[in-house]
Amino acid sequence: MEELVQRIKEDGRVLGEGVLKVDSFVTHQVDPNLMEAIGYRFAEVFAESGITKIVTIEASGIAPALFAAKKLNVPMIFARKAKSLTMDEELLTSSVYSFTKQVTSQISISRKFLSSEDKVLIIDDFLANGQAAKGLVELCQQAGAQVDGIGIVIEKSFQDGRELLEEMGMRVVSLARIASLQNGEVEFLEGDA
Amino acid sequence: MEELVQRIKEDGRVLGEGVLKVDSFVTHQVDPNLMEAIGYRFAEVFAESGITKIVTIEASGIAPALFAAKKLNVPMIFARKAKSLTMDEELLTSSVYSFTKQVTSQISISRKFLSSEDKVLIIDDFLANGQAAKGLVELCQQAGAQVDGIGIVIEKSFQDGRELLEEMGMRVVSLARIASLQNGEVEFLEGDA
Q1: Given phi > 0 = left and psi -120 to 50 = alpha, else beta, which region is B145?
Q2: How confident is the model at residue A5 (pLDDT cuts 50, 70, 90)?
Q3: Which of A23, A100, A108 to mutate: most B Cβ within 10 Å?
Q4: Do residues B137 and B130 lie in contact, with contact meaning Cβ atoms separated by under 8 Å?
């Protein structure tokens, strides 16, 4: 997605250790126009898939997932990283290790929101080692829902997340694919859409 | 906001202890069409205020804040509840006690995203005792930004959050105002917009 790649070139910042910081338009401050364009692109790619639910994880996945859900006219569910006192029902849960935060956390979705009738599009902001997306796939599978694809805003193609998800039989659609962050420079691969 | 009040009547669920559960359309599963209508209503109310930034807090505030930001064509910033490894810059921070989760947490926004040039509209999903909104106001004030108003999706008017914020000189605009949750019934006051 050219508009996204250009924005990463202009406003992304490479920190040490393979970190790409996009906190001025994705992960902290959010550009709603870009998020709409991203969400609509995912909706376009999966327009014929009969998607019934968009699933993401709090917090940075919510913006692109919401616009995709708006365009496909389906509900969006965001998995929770911590259990709330008002989440009293039966939960789908999975463990996710975050290399960024260096903790393993439980993620969960109330079982009542996913069923074997559902065809799910998973959306997340980043794909690195694939642990978050894998956790989301597992939540959907626990409910018997079919995962039709995984839409990723920014893929770090030099990490093994995409391979992990494809080995699980998943279709991965990444709008920006990053080949390398070496020497403080962002090198891109051709994106999927 | 009649559409929101109707939806609360249909799909909201009163738990014990003054808890209104709206997890099927606001706080866990999200209805993007309703969120758009809500965001656009806030945008309409504050259309003439010269708002430059929308500020909310992860995670349930993001959806209504994003659509308001889209309509007003300004960035949306969501305050973080936990510090990320990639948030390396100087932070605005404030303490918030959550009665729902029974913990005090630090919330933060990178200082670079707010300045004395900004006119801020704060948006959140719930207003109960006002601790989260107060924390967001404090973050904006630390940056010297002007807070023009606080847009709330659902206000528990039987708690003292609105009073607290109004005593701080804030304009509070709540789309649904709940007078009481006694006996498992939702009683409404007239909403602000």
Answers
A1: beta
A2: very high
A3: A23
A4: no
- Max CA separation in chain A (angstroms): 49
For residue A78, give the chain B residue with the closest CA.
B28
Q: What are phi and psi of B181, to 5 degrees?
A: -120, 20
The per-residue DSSP string of B141-193 comes to HHTTPEEEEEEEEEEETTSSHHHHHHHTT--EEEEEEEEE-GGG--EEEPP--
CA B182 to chain centroid: 24
Q: How far apart are CA B161 and CA B164, in angstroms?
A: 5
Percentage of chain A lying above the pLDDT 90 cut:
89
Q: Which residues of A touch B75 (CB under 8 A)?
A: 25, 29-32
Determine contact, residues B26/B3, Cβ cutoff 8 Å. Answer: no
pLDDT tens, B174-190? 999 999 999 999 999 99
Delimit the domains of chain B by residue range.
2-189
B7/A104 Cα distance (integer angstroms): 36
Cα–Cα distance measured from residue A119 to residue A123, given in angstroms and rounded to the nearest whole number: 13
CA dist A19 → A103, A135, B23, B93 (Å): 17, 22, 34, 24
Q: Is the dihedral of CA B15, B161, B174, A80 positive or negative?
A: negative
In chain A, residues with a C-beta closer than 8 Å to the C-beta of B84 are 27, 100-101
The verdict on B30 touching A (C-beta cutoff 8 Å) is: yes
CA distance A86 to B14: 10
Q: Where are the alpha helices (DSSP H) in chain B?
A: 2-11, 32-45, 62-72, 131-142, 161-167
| Fold type of domain A2-189 | Rossmann fold (3.40.50)
